[in-house]
Amino acid sequence: MPGEGMVQPSVGQVLSHLEGCSVAHFACHGTTDPLDPSKSGLILQRQGQVSTANDEQDGCRETAGLIQDRLTVIMISEMDLKHAKLAYLSAVENLSDEVIHVVSGFHVAGFSHVVGCLWPSNDRVCVEVARLFYSSLFAQGWRKWNDGKVAWALREALMVVRADDMTMPLNWAQYVHYGM
Length: 180
Prior knowledge:
Blueprint: H1 11-18, E1 23-26, E2 29-31, E3 41-53, E4 60-72, H2 73-77, E5 86-89, H3 102-109, E6 113-117, H4 123-137, H5 147-164, E7 175-179
Helix pairs in contact: 4-5
Organism: Clonostachys chloroleuca
Protein name: CHAT domain-containing protein
InterPro entries: CHAT_dom
């Protein structure tokens, strides 16, 4: 599937790229803000200037480094995405028991399907589930998938992972599909 991978993008870069994409995959941490769920979001990292303590003096110095950048529910839900079809949130945590969560933000923005996790995920399992999911979804070519195939592809991926590790449901049972 043609697309552009982004490594350590800023929130601004992600928001700009979402405008034209039909499938968005996020592999990052998520956070929940129980006091203001609209501030829940995905934690991105971008290059920037970081203040660090300087051992030789009492002052601080700035060096290039990674800065956390939060893509919040409110930022996502304010978008009106015309081409959006599928968002896959392979985040450590992106759902909570709140009514407003990251998945709902992607739905409001225009994604008709969102795959998310109910609790923190094992990185190895995340990679395997995503690989199997996309292999199944795009088996006939990336232009030939349809709405009914998304839930089926997730189910197929989870059945394979589950068969390999029946004794550890916390590793594979957290995946959910929201959509048609």
